[in-house]
Amino acid sequence: MSQAPSRLKVMKLEELLRRDVWDVDEERHIEVLKQEGLPLKALQLLCPMGCYSMAGERLLMSYEGCVECGTCRVLSKPEQIRWEFPRSGRGIQYRYT
Amino acid sequence: MAKGGGLFNLSKFDVVVVGAGPSGSTAAYLLAKAGFKVLLLERGRGAGSKLLWGGKAYAEPLRKVWPELDKEAPIHRWVTKERISIVWGERALTLEYKLGRKVAFTSPLPELAGWMAKKAESAGALLLDEVPVDEIVVKEGRAVGVRSGNDFVSADVVIDAEGANRILLEKLGLADRPSPYDMALGVKEVLSLDPRLIEERFGLERDEGLSWLILGDITAGIPGGGFVYTMRETIGIGLVLNIGHAAVAAEKGILRDHVSRLVEGLRTHPYFRNYWREADVIEYGGRMTIEGGLRFVPKRLYSNGLLVVGDAAGMLVNTGYTIRGVDTAVTSARLAAEAIIEARDRGGFTEENLRAYEEKVRESYIYRDLVEHSGIAEIFDDPFFFSKVPSLATRAASKLFEADYGEPSLLEAIKRSAEEEEISLLRLMLKVGRVVRRI
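^ Those are the sequences you sent over. The predicted structure of the assembly is below.
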């Protein structure tokens, strides 16, 4: 079997994220309010940008890489996650999608 | 950007449109052309900067708004080939259809939506970007304008074109937060490749494109599918996954990898990777789309001084083999603009006069398609179609094409495969029959 070219190696999420452009808002627009009852594994695996991770027992949300898709919003209730859009033009800047 | 009072606060508009996506810009364009004073508000930096899709739009409904579409719009390639593949492991079964005419085209959505917003501006609409709307303001049962931070702008009619994340409609109590089973997550990579290589690899002429739907284990058994769209010098590849089912799979440990790993699985898949082996990934992202069909459509698309269009109105048809969201968004906005123009001529934007919009939608192909394909949800709810069917189909194909000594008949190949997969033929026939009726 011939070796696949390096471009065809599976890329880690961190590498994929380097392809994107953001203008990160200094204000957090998404925040975990109440962890209890949230689907922790689903949030970690389905947030396309990997914004959710665990620090021990605690769910962390890093809003910086968010693309405002709303997946975590539909997987939660308003009292579990505060979900807003970033202010004035901030956030992901899609170009070729 | 207008901030902190001044003009923004003093001005009154005939119409304010929330969201400069395809539906918002269509409404703004048509109403500005009809002489309305229109304000088009966009939360992103420039129209389209928050948009991501698969890649294909149907042209004819767009030509009804812009007859100059073919000449002016950023059409990357006309879709001349439609492919459907069923993939299981390294095996794949593919059906290709060569179209007889130009029906749909590919384009990056930020670019296409950018063009539509420019058309709205050139017709006289005022586009202000970087303005997130916080609230549709209702006074005495009537929408009177919108609020962004401390700024308020008043209008006779508000058009809600906020998209599938219906923050504003939910605040007004006109829509509920959707069930995750009614939504799907699209995850996409944009690959950059020399146009000549795109054309050689896919057997295309210069302005021709390919649209490719993929079913099978690339979604790890989660109801959904994969897509490939060729643009001028990029290829969009990705997956669409039902969020409710994907969440259950993640919680149960059936889905173990991050969704980006599934998209990378498609990009590096032995059956696909040689089409784009030199390509660089130039962008990666995700966006939510609607899978609930009629269930996502709000009870009413109009109220006193307010109309809802595009994704926010559930004006998106998911047939199972294709998602039509842009032409339907544009059409719903065109119908909304027509209703507003008629309401003006009848003396006001009252609930009664605006009801014509909903009647127009009900008479349109969008509503007919939404009703006709409403059974698709049943198929999405049945993981049988996303695990057993693809594995059976590729297994049967392997019996036909990988027989060292003598090939079985097609029926025999299916029978034996069904036995090996422990599926009764009767159950299979009933299920497949249901798909044929539903999609």
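DSSP finds 16 helices and 19 strands in chain B. Chain B touches chain A through 67 residues (CB under 8 Å).

Shout if you want it in another format.
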